[in-house]
């Protein structure tokens, strides 16, 4: 602004030059803002017009840059000084709080609140702020310096039927002291509000109250509030149903759920697993996983009902066992429902479904192994990684899962993606532990192996093959032998045709008194796969077969 403009306004009262001041404010910059504010203050002869102009100036300053709080904070001392003589600066002070982002300048915010605390204003002034978007934080600050108004504010504000007001209240009311909501029956009508914001707001308040009542051991209040919360699981709005699940999850986490309500609540949560809305289904299944992980029977390692009851139990022990049976039975029904969701190809819920099945398996819930087998089918889709992650997590807790899905084609695909300690497997097999399963796993991990390790394994499996006691053992040992040949294909590098590996291969083919086409086939494949000169090695095999007159074996090649 030019010096001429400044000089002209220096002798102009607000009431006489309102339009000129308006034009000046429209041209306001960071450089002349201080001068304009001081001129307004010096020439104030009409409070209402002055407040209009000052309000415009504040808005202009706020819009000067993206860092509006820095701009406003810089000129705040001049603005606060200019309103000291006003009889009613409430609207200006409220505006300053609105335009000053709380998180950016705490000192400036506190200065404004300090000035505001010296003036009288009524609840209606605060309620007016509710009609503006995102003013919940500002109102919260104001109520902190006028605590005597909170009760009246709550009573009057919750009666307003306005979407903006409802949204502001949904954030504001739960932040207030819970003592204002102890008479919770007075607020139940909010559950009938058309605004889902207010229904969610009351859920937040009831969660806080339940946790407070737990501290004071008010069991009846907890029971009643929990019931009201659970009813919202059937709300017409999916946001409210989701919110109710979240609140119930927090109450489980903080151990605020009463024992006599627990199982009924879990049934209600399971029912939400078939909700038509993705967000509700996902939250329901995740909550069931949380409840299962933190189940109330911590003295039990697994949720196995086969030995839960005993004749020698006391009455107390029987009640605990009955509760355990009911809890596990409900969770088993939940598992059955959640597994059935896989039939609908709900890709949006796959992570949550897999997570629940994983926890069920780790806790040995009945039907969990079958559930794992069903989810293995997902490995043939684009969502393979979800299944891989589930098995990695299970493997870190229960290593025996490696031996529970032998010969499952989907499991074979996953094996190559898992982090398995092959050294331990080789050692266990050589020591005679789970030979069939161990060799099967080593084959499908498809990891490279050294010649010495492979030869050691090959010699051991050969010995077992030719010591088969009966037809059933022979059949299993042939499969183990073929898997071993497949492991040999993963040698780190090609080997010389004079290697002991080929010597043993040829010797075994000659020695076989049984005819197994697959062994011949895999032996030939192995030679071509790892021999540095496969033609010579194959020649040795054929020569030895001819010398032993094994014509049929030659034809089988």
Automatic annotation (TrEMBL):
Entry's transmembrane regions? none
Q: Which UniProt keywords apply?
A: DNA condensation
- Which biological process terms from the Gene Ontology are attached to this UniProt entry? meiotic chromosome condensation; mitotic chromosome condensation
Q: Which GO terms describe its molecular function?
A: histone binding
Which GO cellular component does the record give, naming just one? condensed chromosome, centromeric region
Protein name from the UniProt record: Condensin complex subunit 1 C-terminal domain-containing protein
